[in-house]
Amino acid sequence: MTCKASVFTASIITLFIISLFQDVYCYYWLHMPPGPWSLPVIGSIHQIDPKQPHRSFKKLSLKYGGILSIRMGLRDRIVYITDLDLINKIFFDQRTSDRPPLNVFKYLTKDIDGIGSSSYGNNFKKQKHLIVNAINTIRNTSAQHKIEKIMKQYLRRMSESEGESFDPKESIIELTCSLFSSLVYGSDYNGFNDPELQTIISNHKTVMDCISPFHPLNIMSLFWWIPNKWLRGFYKCIKDRDIIITRKCYQTKKINSEDKNHQENIINILLTEHDIHEKQDIKNLIMSAWTVFLAGSESVRSLCLWTLQNLGLYTQMQNRIYHDVQTVVEENSFPNIQQKHELPYTCAFILETMRVCQANVLGIPHCTSADIQIDNNVIPKGTMIMLGFWDNLNNSKQWAEATKFNPDRFLDENNKLIKYQTLNSFIVFGKGHRMCPGSSITLDLMFLFVTALVKCFLVELHLKDGEKIDTNGQFSFGLEPSPYKIRLTKRNNINHDNFL
After folding, report:
1. Do 415 and 464 belong to one domain?
2. Are 163 and 489 in contact (CB under 8 A)?
3. Does residue 284 form part of some domain?
4. CATH number at residue 75
């Protein structure tokens, strides 16, 4: 054996020994939760399917139990929890309510403590209170007007494709980014081809790719120090974002229009309706508003895509929604958020879509701010925790016939909508300290999307002979449908010109 071969062999053996000692230290000295043994450098990432990570974690949880730990690449061990009782404890424990210091978050926020990345504490609680109040103000004032205007633009565009089969993915991201640009910044684009909106959409795609826990930038810190395509795209995206946000905030401060609907947006409320003068507080709120835009547009985008697929898959359910909408909403009137209580089945359909097709299958990562003792296991301070949202929302222990799409599970014996907050296992929006602040407006948006779309069009899936729809979806940051095509047919008993 040559000298070089000997050195190489010794290096490999050394790496395996180091990896073994790291695992032994974590399992038997620190008493971290059980999990698979790690390989050098890559850890146990080879056991996780990047397209279906939630299913890979489910297999691991069946072997190691409701709480396990695993090393992903060169990062420290993460803890993955599927036990529902433990998940609910995590939601309400201040010691597990921080966010992990992912490299991407560090560069996204530039050390500004926005609501998405801020550690749990007084600053976070203050920002969340202001964000929730701003969202509620929008819901009670301009949301209907803004959503209706942009939805009509979307429906007019869809009418141009009537009878043709098409992939709805691009039109949906244009819709959702336009909606949240209006709600958060007051943007009033003339159409979905506006150059600024297209830049926002391009940046949105880049950011969502990069913040996935399984993205190379998050798994291998080395990629932050060497030139690569991910880093170039990411830095350009942040530069474009900062220019657009600065311009939006400047425009907001200069607005003197009498159009109240235009003035009422989240950034305007945060900057002008609260007595905030500290420069850092203002920066924090601006970052929080951008976080609302990013998280809101992404979650609603995924939900809209799943909704279109489910409307096409379950035609009888679509017909029931249409019949109810025709009964409640006047012929040439646009649906109204206030009509939700009159359309319980539509709301149940939306909740069931959220349950079965949960976009955020692994939750937003938490991080411990202190050592945590759970039974015989210890989660050290600074450990990232990921939660099995998908596993619990599709678990037969929590839901009867969990794999069956059944909106009626959200209706009581009187056909009234069951409040999802009363369902312990409905964790779509999270709970406790880090619960999604935009849950209510998300449901408002989805309600108007479904009712307006079904009122105008019959939604059908376009499948080739023998083709079957893939209902498993594919993972990026969250879970979204695999590519599919739909065909829209105009409803005969509506005057589209008057309605739109």
Report:
1. yes
2. yes
3. yes
4. 3.30.43.20
368, 413: one domain: no
In-domain check, residue 107:
no
Q: Percentage of residues in the chain with pLDDT exceeding 70?
A: 93
Q: Residue 401: CB partners within 8 Å, gap ≥ 6?
A: none
Same domain, 306 and 335: yes
In whole angstroms, give the CA distance from residue 171 to residue 37. Answer: 44
Domain identity same for 200 and 187: yes
Spatial distance between the Cα atoms of 353 and 237, rounded to a whole number of angstroms = 31
Residues 6 or more apart whose CB falls under 8 angstroms from that of 185 comprise: 248, 252, 265, 266, 267, 289, 293
- Asked whether residue 47 is domain-assigned, the answer is yes
Residues 208 and 303 in one domain: yes
**Separation of alpha carbons 272 and 28, rounded Å:** 55
Encode pLDDT of 164-184 as tens digits: 899 999 999 999 999 999 999
240 lies in some domain:
yes
User: What residue numbers does the annotated binding site cover?
Assistant: 436
Whether 369 and 347 share a structural domain: no
Same domain, 95 and 139: no
Range(s) of the domain holding residue 383: 17-102+362-388
d(C-alpha 385, C-alpha 367), whole Å: 6
Phi/psi at 73 (nearest 5 deg)? 65, -140
Domain boundary among 388, 405, 428: 388
**Residues at the annotated binding site for heme?**
436
Count of domains for the chain: 2
CATH code of residue 125? 1.10.630.10
Per-residue CA distances from 144 to 258, 397, 442 (Å): 18, 38, 13
Give the orientation angle of helix 229-254 with respect to helix 195-210, to 10 degrees.
130
Whether 73 and 100 have beta carbons less than 8 Å apart is answered as no
The string of pLDDT tens digits covering residues 229-286 is 888 888 888 888 888 887 777 666 555 444 544 457 888 888 776 666 677 777 788 8
Both 377 and 425 in a single domain?
Answer: no
Tokens encoding 22 = 């790291």
